[in-house]
Amino acid sequence: MTYDPEIPRQFYDNLGDREWHRLTKDRLGELLFHVHMDVLRLHIGPEHSVLELGAGAGIFTKELALLAGRLVVSDLSQVQLDLNRQHMIGAGCFDRISSFENLDIGDLSELDAGTFDRVVCIGGPLSYLLDRERTALEGLIRILRPGGRLVVGVMSLLSTVIRYMRGLKNEKESYGIDAIRWLLETGIQDGSNYPGPQHAKHHVHMMRSDELDALCDDLPATIIEKRAAGLLALAGEEALEVAAQDPDLWQLLLDRELAYSKQPGSLDLGANLLYVLEKESGDVTSGSRGGEGVHG
User: pTM of the predicted model, to two decimals?
Assistant: First the structure.
């Protein structure tokens, strides 16, 4: 369960432009986008300098470019970063982006402390960090200015188990009951404890909210918001598609998705857990050069 950046890098290199369509190919994606955008609009404005980590092909970059005063875009995969640049040119947003950086959230030591007003790390990049999850969170908080905010998302274990319940029997027959027990107890898919060709190249930790809470304990930051994103996807894609054929009904459901996403009891049932943390006020850590660029 050791983090190896080459595994997610190769996965997203191979995924290519399919990442650009991830939230537009089905109704689950629409629900996820809807909740994430609600959170981003609440916490990001033209007065903020923003770093987007794990930006992928630019699903949220095109929106952040319009919300933020200054935006730096980054990803572990150079393939995704190049696609992002192309998509932002096509969307007319390229000139609003300060720079594109190839960064690994597992090690942000090259970035100055206190550089950004907002850091956005959504879509689940933290779920790939395994044994470096806490180190990554500390690094994300470090690069924020005092009073700055981190918007971070992880993949949810409970929602995933419920939505993919039908496949567990086949997984058990392929990998054995111990592999299923490991998955249900830890939420970790990897090449050794949860075998198979897909999981050998896609190591991921799907979390419960209490695990994310524990990761945030004793950070110099306060959790100010928690959201469940993709909650109504538990109904299944077919049911969502039927509802979406009625525009009034679908709009009502989108509105309720936002309302339900704020309910504490709904948190673990979202496809993504979405947290907002605010860094404590105080002196900026020595070494900061005021955020005029990623490297000063």
Answer: 0.93
Instruction: Answer whether residue 84 shows pLDDT above 50.
Output: yes
DSSP string, the chain: ----THHHHHHHHHHGGGGGGTTTSSHHHHHHHHHHHHHHHHH--TT-EEEESS-TTSTTHHHHHHH-SEEEEEES-HHHHHHHHHHHHHHT-GGGEEEEEE--TT--TTSPTT-EEEEEE-SSGGGG-GGGHHHHHHHHHHTEEEEEEEEEEEEBHHHHHHHTGGGHHHHHHHH-HHHHHHHHHH-EE-TTTS-SHHHHS--EE-B-HHHHHHHHTTSSEEEEEEEEESGGGGG-HHHHHHHHTSHHHHHHHHHHHHHHHT-GGGGGGSSEEEEEEEEPPSPPPTT--TTSSTT-
Asked whether residue 99 carries a pLDDT value surpassing 70, the answer given is yes
Complete DSSP assignment for 205-221: E-B-HHHHHHHHTTSSE
CA–CA dist 31, 126 (Å, integer): 20
pLDDT tens per residue across span 251-283: 999 999 999 999 999 999 999 999 999 999 975
